[in-house]
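Re: the request from the purification team.
They wanted to know what the chain is likely to look like in 3D before they choose a buffer screen. I agreed to run a prediction and write the result into the notebook, where they can find it.
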Amino acid sequence: MLPSRIFFDNFFDDLEPSRKMDKMMKCDIYEKDGKYTIEMDVPGFKKEDIKMELSNGYLTISAEKTQESDESDDKKYLRRERKSYEKCERQFYVGDVDDADVKAEFKDGILTIVVPKETKEEESKKVINID
């Protein structure tokens, strides 16, 4: 006997954000030339759908889109998966960097973000005299 999962979708699949996130916004992060590069898949989104914010050392990338319905059709849909509202978000701690130093490019569904590596000033040791 085959499990019913093969024949019928689980109604609750769309309510579990973790399952949808597994398919969206996958990324690779690497260090090169003193900078961090984040390469992130953002399939199905346009450049205008993507927003990046830098706040308190956290870089937040979110993508949001709504596909408009075509109500002029006289079709009676039994299931409609392509007309939807989608939103996904990822957050990374990048440290205390200036937002002007963060560069981003979106091409062929891949968002490439270059963030300068946070340079911590070396703490100078200070000798305290004991009176």
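For the purification team: The first helix runs from residue 17 to 23.
Please add any questions underneath this entry.
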